[in-house]
Amino acid sequence: NTKRGVLALPSSVLLPISPRSGSSYGLHPSLNNLQPLFTTPRAGQSYPPLALACNVGTLTAPLTKSMYTSGISRPYQLFSHSDQQNQWQTGTSAADLAMGWGGRIADKTADVTGTTTAFPTVCSVAGVSVFSVGAVTQPIAIAPAPTLLSSALALLQPDPNHRLTNILAGDQSPSTPTLVTGAADITQFAVNNSQALQSPPAVLKTAFPATGLGNQLLQVARMISLAPALGLSRQIFFCSVGGFDTHTVQLNAQKGLLQQLGDAMAAFYAATVELNVSSNVTS
Fold first, then answer.
1. Separation CA 184–CA 209 (nearest Å)
2. How would you class 6 by CB atoms within 10 Å of its CB: exposed for 0-12, middle for 13-18, buried for 19 or more?
3. 19 HSE (CA, 13 A, CB side)
4. pLDDT tens-digit profile of 16-52?
């Protein structure tokens, strides 16, 4: 398609990798900072830290055109981008997308270690997401870097005469509208957890790229360093980078997107090594 442009890259520009299957492949040249993580084990380890998961998607079974037309084994809204994003985050191809697999994992593992903490197990640095929602898990969303953790949940203080201020102080009369009390509960939840983030996180020597994903992963690394202070032995984080819905000039768009992805994830892995938790973190 001349509008989309050529999608193939010449093999001469690819970054060579040799999986244990014996075949030779190549990574996009923008993933130059990830290539060493696929090819070179760290000292004292048998395998490199990066692996590739191939042939994954939201199909529930092999699908032919006739099966799609008849509705057999067809994921809900297969050609809707927003629905497909939700299905990746919920782990289900059904239309009912109320909970995400991050939240459901938190539901199942919250009491495994026997430790209890008021701070949420699930944290998003990319806004509200269905991935973080569980049946009983209450996730939290914080601002990415360069915002400091101590102010990542900072709220504008309501006017002392504002009704919300009185509700936060305990004045929740039966006549208070449900929407107002619900907003007060969420605000109080943020206020309480903001106090837990006042401890300074580790000062990282690892340099993160000043990109959207880089700033999100820097904040995640800071949160991981605070896990003992927060009383957490398990943490689940949600990050996001958009723009992959390309229609035109795809090679140029993919070059920038994959550079952002590779540089940010390589920096994040280096930060987990610096924090001595690389073997305990899966991205």
1. 36
2. exposed
3. 10
4. 998 887 788 999 999 999 999 999 998 888 889 999 8
